[in-house]
Every structure is written in C-alpha cells, then in structure tokens.
C-alpha cells in the first residue's frame, strides 16, 4: 500500500498581494463597528515587511491574519498610540534596524475560533522573532472588559492589575497573559475609538529567551524551535457502550496534551480495538478485525478534527485498515495539526497477528514531514528489526514513535530493550506508547502489559539512564518530556561515541528493494 496522504486543511504562511481582497473582507467581518482595512494599508504592510505578515488558511479560506513590523526599543518602551506607532496602519514606521517585533493587528474569523487560530499566529511571530534574533515581541493589547468594570475598579491601572492577578477575566488581556505575554505598562489613549477599553491599551511583551541573558535560565518551552514537547499516553482498555465513549476518552488525553502545549501526543497500537467492546456479542478474531476496519473512515475524520481543533500533532497509535488491495493491515496514522493525514503500515506482523487476524505486512518505510522535522513510525514488533529505524534515521528522522500492544512483561521488555537499542545506535529519540488492562469481550485481547517511555541516547547531555520520561507500570497516565533536537545533533557529531556516523559503510550497508 502506497503512502496515504491528504493535503493540509489548515496552513500558516506569509501573506501575498493575492490575499488582499480576502484580508479586507476578513477585517470587515471582525471589526463590525469600525472601518475595515483598506487595500492601501495592507499593501503598505506587505511592502514594508513582507516576511512579517502571516495568514492562516483553513480549507482554502483565509481565517486569520497577523500584521507585524520591527521597531527600535526607544519607540516601543515609551507612551505611544496605535496610529502613531503603526503609521496609521500602513506599517510606515517599520525599521529594519530595530530590535523588537511589534504587532500591528491580529484578526481571527469569529466563526472559526475553535481552531486556535490566534495561537498559531502568535507562534508564527515567535518563530520569526527568534529567526531575526530580536529582543522580543511587543504590541498594544485591548482591555475590552474595562468599561463595564470601571465603577468597581476606578482606574484602568487598577483594572489591569486585577486581571494580572487573575481576580477577573478580560476577553483579550487574559488570553495574552495565558499565551505568555507580560503587561509592561498602560498605554493612555492608545486607540481612542475603542470605547470598551476606554481608549486604553496595555503594552504586552514577550522576551526572546535566546537574546536577553537575564532570561537564559528560564525553563525551556515550545518557543524554542529546537525543543519538541512529547506527551505519550498509556491508555487503559475499557469497555464502552458506544463509539462516542471511546472518542471522548481519546479527546480527553488530546486536550491534556494541548494544555501542556505539546507538539505531539502519542497513542498505543490497536487502541481502537476498544470499539469492538460495544458489539452485541463477542466476535471471533477474523470477523472482529474485519468489523474494526469498518470504523476507519469515522476514525480518520474524528482524529483529524481533534488535531486541527487542539493544534497538536497526533500519532494515532495504529488501527486495522483494509487497504486498496483488499488486505487487512495494521496501520499507524499521523494526524498533523495542519489537517494532513499520513498512514504507515506495520512491516512485520507478529505470528499472533498473522494467525488470528490474518494481518498482512506492509511495504513502504518512509519518514513523515512535520512542522518539527521528519519523524518515523515503527509499530511494536517493527522496533525489533534495526534496519527499519536505520532507514528512517537515514531519511532524517530524529524522533521515532513506537505504538505497542503487548500482553506479558516478556513481550513488553522485548519492545523496550529494542527501542533503547535503536535510540543508542541511531542517536535519536524513541517514544513508546502502550495499552494496559483487559477487554474480556474482545477475543485475542485478554490482557495487556505496558510501561510507556521516552528514550534518549546515552551520553553526557541526556538523562543518566537514557530515559527522558517513563510511565508507571500498568497505570493509565501520561508521560511528558521536552526533547532537544540540537543536543541530539551535538551527540551525533561531538558525542563520546558517534554510532550513527561511525558506521563502516565501506564494509557493510543495507540495500532496500526500492534502491535505498
């Protein structure tokens, strides 16, 4: 079966002149009580700083826009108005020699707010800020809750302080605080026609931790493009009355991972077998696996929607899928936050899978391109064949995901030891996710044993025992770790040992049937 890949449903990119009409329409939809942006304003922004204007496209429709420019610190850190600092919205004050990225505007389609469009735009700004090595990001934020609370708090300063202390929620300022921005000071008469804010704004800032030495000791977070945050789910098998119960349980963990601001959340091999527990009667293995394949379209649709809605990449464990040639294969799915879907077949079905479920082995072994770089999927038994991990790492993968499903400690340890070996010999990260518990009414899934983990190479920069994070045995929980890709590359080129580069390719190599 060839790779199954759909085109992205949601994309963040820089704006172009072809987008101008759509951006005018979007601003008119967002700012109903104000005049929308004019063509001249948007053209001015694009002309002044083309790489700083971002759009979010969802199903071929522009649903978000962020206008940005660069300003010197002296202008940012003093009282100013929106019209003054942005040149009336044209970005005319843009200064390439400046040291702060300044936000002119963010527009989000009110009908698409559940897609975390604003967060995607702010993340794009952070990446740009770091790429340009600027001090940070600044903008004048609104305080739309001030007017209705003015009698209680008196001054805008007092209101802002109450919001900062989380004594009340402001629709805009609270979002900025949660997104990691800090209030610097109140901007008087920042935007006079903003009646709800009393004309006030608040200078919100985010300091680039890789510019300001005072912030170099802060905990690493997703704002560093070299850091990939992983949440692996050790999931409890549970009997369900209807498929919705299964998807509710899955979405709970997806939401938890999104709240941790993870880049990836990982689920176990064949976790969709829980969908069979709501059948009227227990099915024999071959009939059961055939019935499970009927859930594939719904499974793909629901998981894709979760990835988009929560702005997270989901490694959707694996699911029995009937392929185009009519065979049933154990397929691992990656549901990326841009809405694209990637399928990877299990290359080596276990003897049990072949005997009871007649599952066939797949063919292609290729990486998946993500916004965190290439990654690979090896499903359970595949991790016990070193050639697969080596091919994926040769193709650029630095993180390998291993959904697994084992019934005994012996089986689990085979997967674990091999995954740790793959991490060492390829100097990469390996993430495992397994199932626990049992489903008495699903044939051939009687008991399960798991201790999911996130494994690293063994060298000075990594955890002492090569374990970045680990779940407790046979308990439903998650394990979380930040994986540093630059540290991984250091290990490959300067580590105590350099397994990945020190291969004797003059003596041996693996030759694949496709010529690779």
UniProtKB/TrEMBL annotation:
Residues 10-209 form the N-acetyltransferase domain. GO terms for molecular function: acyltransferase activity. The lineage of its organism: Bacteria, Pseudomonadati, Pseudomonadota, Alphaproteobacteria, Hyphomicrobiales. Its EC number is 2.3.1.-. InterPro entries: Acyl_CoA_acyltransferase, C-N_Hydrolase, C-N_Hydrolase_sf, GNAT_dom. Keywords: Acyltransferase, Transferase. This is GNAT family N-acetyltransferase. Residues 228-485 form the CN hydrolase domain.
